[in-house]
């Protein structure tokens, strides 16, 4: 599996930790190899005696005796000694690097000690009856494990390993949800609409967790949209099948009928054709609104006038079932909107209320405003709907009772048109059951902003009516 993001997170974190520990090491190394490191103090204190001893050995035994003494004083990979006369000539015959003379001269100027990156050089001058001598000692630092006090070296080693583990955990923690989301994306592309990436996120609330949850929300919405389209296709095919079948049957009967019977069949065909045209118009209306193809023509409208027109026509339909419509308008309320869409939305809700209120039903319509919205409330005294069906009422082709046909409950498109018509105005629609029985549908449309210094329309509360 290609985990480029994992390594892009892990490596910078770990390199940063390693650099930090390396800087700590260098700081410790610098401190323990300062101008007066503790590990050369014994040799420094002994330099006067060693210089006197070397001078005497040279005067007594010559170059060979001096060389033996200096070899005995030297420790492998630790220290080396040389003895110079007043002219700067090395007297033991031992090989001496060129930089030693330069470092020894610097040590003379710094109280007998010169520290370089490779080693530390000590020098001490003595004078005897026979001459003047300079003893030079080069001391190589001991291994780091001997110079670092306590367990600091192990602390650095364990710190490096521990930082690698921590960086590994952090990189895994950050990239794992993204990997799950990538796998979920592939599953979604294959058609698995139920896949979710955030099932094992636990209580994470960081930006990555929010991104994964947003992906799951998007996947859920996508599933709903596709399911809605499937329902639309299924609903269209189901609803159109009945009138088309009746038309074909009526045509077959009309061919063999005559006179009054043929006229009756033709009337039946005409009615089904009108019904079919109405169905197609509603289906196209929903499709245009949901796809955004129908662009509303906004203008300043008075909601009171639109409701008056809708109720004037609705009262003729209500008269067929002796239903009564009461209207309680508030003050004049203006909005920016499309008159046709708003009229269609209000009309669909009112016609539903008349239908479900039944014989001698009671429908109450209210118009008032809140601080920001114009609110149209339409309440009936019908049977209401189950609580679990309330969130689904405004979906296309949804009917509380799937057994109802177009003759008893419509196609389930009216409230979908209401939802979309209100949504293009930036508003919302909701439904709730009311006591003792009945359904209340509330449409909210944003008001025209009131000029500064002026109060909004007076609010008429339903509880006061």
Share of residues in strands: 15-25%
Helix count equals: 11
Rg over CA atoms: 48 Å
Number of domains: 3
- How many strand units? 11
Looking at CATH, the homologous superfamily of the largest domain is Histidine kinase-like ATPase, C-terminal domain
Inertia-based shape: rod-shaped
What is the H/E string?
A: HHEHEEEHHHHEHEEHEEHHEE
The CATH topology annotation of the largest domain reads as: Heat Shock Protein 90
Task: Look at the helices and sheets and give the structural class.
Answer: alpha+beta
What is the mean pLDDT? 77
What is the CATH class designation of the largest domain?
Alpha Beta
Strand order of the largest sheet: 6-8-9-11-10
End-to-end CA span: 67 Å
Percent helix among the residues? 40-55%
Low-confidence regions: 403-409, 452-465
Do you know the CATH architecture of the largest domain?
A: 2-Layer Sandwich
Task: Report the sheet with the most strands, covering strand number, pairing sense and barrel closure.
Answer: 5 strands, mixed
């Amino acid at each position: 599996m290609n985990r480029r993001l994992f390594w892009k997170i892990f490596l910078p974190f770990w390199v940063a930790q390693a650099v930090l520990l390396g800087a700590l090491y260098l700081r410790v190394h610098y401190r323990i190899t300062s101008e007066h490191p503790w590990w050369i103090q014994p040799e420094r204190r002994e330099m006067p005696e060693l210089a006197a001893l070397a001078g005497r050995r040279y005067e007594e035994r010559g170059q060979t005796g001096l060389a033996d003494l200096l070899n005995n004083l030297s420790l492998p990979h630790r220290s080396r000694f040389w003895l110079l006369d007043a002219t700067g000539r090395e007297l033991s015959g031992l090989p001496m690097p060129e930089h030693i003379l330069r470092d020894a001269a610097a040590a003379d100027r710094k109280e007998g000690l010169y520290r370089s990156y490779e080693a530390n050089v000590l020098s001490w001058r003595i004078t005897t009856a026979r001459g003047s001598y300079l003893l030079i000692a080069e001391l190589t630092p001991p291994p780091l494990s001997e110079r670092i006090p306590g367990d600091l070296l192990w602390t650095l080693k364990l710190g490096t390993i521990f930082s690698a583990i921590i960086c590994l955990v952090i990189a895994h923690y950050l990239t794992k949800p993204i990997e799950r989301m990538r796998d979920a994306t592939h599953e979604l592309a294959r058609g698995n609409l139920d896949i979710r990436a955030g099932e094992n996120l636990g209580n994470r609330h960081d930006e990555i967790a929010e991104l994964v949850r947003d992906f799951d929300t998007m996947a859920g919405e996508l599933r709903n949209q596709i399911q809605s389209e499937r329902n639309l296709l299924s609903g269209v095919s189901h609803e159109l099948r009945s009138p088309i079948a009746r038309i074909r049957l009526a045509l077959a009967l009309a061919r063999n009928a005559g006179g009054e019977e043929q006229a009756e069949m033709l009337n039946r065909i005409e009615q089904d054709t009108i019904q079919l045209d109405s169905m197609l118009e509603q289906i196209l209306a929903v499709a245009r609104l949901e796809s955004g193809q129908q662009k509303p023509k906004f203008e300043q409208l008075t909601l009171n006038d639109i409701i008056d027109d809708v109720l004037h026509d609705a009262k003729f339909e209500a008269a067929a079932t002796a239903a009564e419509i009461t209207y309680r308008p508030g003050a004049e309320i203006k909005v920016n909107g499309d008159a046709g869409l708003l009229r269609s939305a209000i009309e669909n809700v009112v016609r539903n209320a008349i239908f479900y209120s039944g014989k001698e039903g009671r429908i109450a319509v209210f118009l008032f405003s809140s601080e920001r919205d114009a609110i149209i409330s339409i309440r009936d005294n019908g049977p209401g709907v189950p609580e679990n069906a309330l969130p689904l009422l405004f979906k296309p082709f949804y009917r509380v009772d799937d057994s109802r046909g177009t003759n008893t409950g419509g196609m389930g498109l009216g409230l979908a048109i209401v939802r979309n018509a209100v949504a293009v105005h930036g508003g919302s629609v909701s439904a709730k059951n009311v006591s003792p029985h009945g359904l209340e549908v509330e449409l909210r449309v944003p008001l025209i902003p009131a000029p500064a210094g002026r109060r909004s329309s007076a609010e008429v509360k339903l509880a006061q009516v």
